[in-house]
Amino acid sequence: MHFNLKLKEMNKLLIVGTVAFDAIETPFGKTDKILGGAGTYIGLSASHFNLQSAIVSVVGDDFPQEYLDLLTSRNIDISGLEVVKGGKTFFWSGKYHNDLNSRDTLATELNVLADFQPKVPQNFKNADVVMLGNLHPMVQSSVLDQMEAKPKLVVLDTMNFWMDCALEDLLNVIKRVDVITINDEEARQLSGEYSLVKAAAKIHTMGPKYVVIKKGEHGALIFHNKEVFFAPALPLEEVFDPTGAGDTFAGGFAGFITQSENVSFENMKTAIIHGSNLASFCVEKFGTERMLKLNKEEVVARLKQFKSLTQFDIAL
Amino acid sequence: MHFNLKLKEMNKLLIVGTVAFDAIETPFGKTDKILGGAGTYIGLSASHFNLQSAIVSVVGDDFPQEYLDLLTSRNIDISGLEVVKGGKTFFWSGKYHNDLNSRDTLATELNVLADFQPKVPQNFKNADVVMLGNLHPMVQSSVLDQMEAKPKLVVLDTMNFWMDCALEDLLNVIKRVDVITINDEEARQLSGEYSLVKAAAKIHTMGPKYVVIKKGEHGALIFHNKEVFFAPALPLEEVFDPTGAGDTFAGGFAGFITQSENVSFENMKTAIIHGSNLASFCVEKFGTERMLKLNKEEVVARLKQFKSLTQFDIAL
């Protein structure tokens, strides 16, 4: 028997974000330098979907081969992950307070990140979805400049730091994206509005048609014009380490959109749930530990929990 | 043609809670003494359902006839609302901070509430549902003592004040109820657990089979053994005055359960949504103003918003 089967090529997700060392302290313990970075968490999260992904980032030659192998073992293309000879990898260290909702940054060593010039691999210049992880907005813009085909969706994550010290660059890149993901305080800072409904409306006028507001343990909202959808965070017995939860959320969102080739608002609702679901695992252990051991059965079982957590019958 | 139609009597909801004067200050303005009190908000909220209700409470003879008429105009039985001759009505005054999530109490004048002995009207001693609004736990217990038939459901609301100064009485009444509604900080205080999942599990062991944890603008959770359901608060452009939101929530919950005669966990999910829906109106104006003008069409339209806010499709 002979099959003339033409397999459709998997959709492509291009990720830009830090690949880094983190040292974390929580009320439950502390770590030495471990694998971290927004690009890492986004990539690991997105690897739960049927897609091709690549990370554009930079590390020093102190970055262990073992960590690089770990990324490639997840089918993440790292040809755009520059290794700077004699350079040191970006390092972040932080200590979480008792409630895990706030943290102090103990150290930020930019190292090779200071002069990072992103280079998009040729075969990802036509990526279907681009996920711009939290980085200098000029780096985010540079990635978009290199695209040869207009992506179906561009998602941008950022933080208050860039609002404080690179606002003009940030506003320039925000103009160019479809979806922005920020936390509630950042949405308030960026918009000057306290009400998240008003903040989202104002951020719409800056460019993004979709505004995702992350509220940590209080879930996430996605606004699209007058429409709004809410995904709760799963109530957990223990939150061990919140590091990477926001990036894991973004990676799940972008990953599901890439796989499903559907950028409707209805599909984004499902994408937000996938993101929340994956993030709920991330916080259960230090760093990437939980994400590295996560299997499909666990993911599906918890998606069922999300359904029973939120779905109700009402006669109208 | 002759119909021999036998109408089923409506189910009964017995409410105990303060009927009071409030003076409120928010970033948007301030009020003189206006109608307030947990019993008032619960009663107004529950009046959106098809049921018979009665409020057991106490006021002074400074309480305007107009306010009493307002309650009876909503079909609320006030034969258990004692008017103390020469007495002064309970008065509370508070000022909300800019974020509306916290407030300072400016005045608490117990007045007639200090010696309140609740008297359940005879025809409500067989009420289907009892809603014990926030009051001294001895008063709440006394209402239960007067019941002649076991209610299908007893719901209790309380606050940190009673945990601080009447814990033993509180634990005694908590033992006797099916559902407790408290906020997140109170759940942590009552249980000694930071995680709300663990807090709910511990409060289960104190008696209530259902633990509702109110998180204000962050929604509400209901726990039942290992099951959990979450209702978000509707994202609003403006929150004007949070006073009474928790009581309105409880009144909607208890009202829907009373009407539907169904104390299953699935039905409680719907009840939580009804409570959240009604509370979303309460906060839009000062005091009871919005609740007094609320019509059925507005309620149904917003329930549809709750559906689109939370319902999603996911293939599992």
From TrEMBL, chains A, B:
Query: Matching InterPro entries, A to Z?
Result: Carboh/pur_kinase_PfkB_CS, PfkB_dom, Ribokinase-like
Q: Name one GO molecular function term.
A: kinase activity
Task: Tell me yes or no: is Kinase among this UniProt entry's keywords.
Answer: yes
Q: Which UniProt keywords apply?
A: Kinase, Transferase
Q: Where is the Carbohydrate kinase PfkB domain?
A: 29-290
Gene Ontology terms: cellular component: cytosol
For this entry, the protein name equals: Sugar or nucleoside kinase, ribokinase family
What high-level taxonomic lineage is stated for the organism?
Bacteria, Pseudomonadati, Bacteroidota, Flavobacteriia, Flavobacteriales
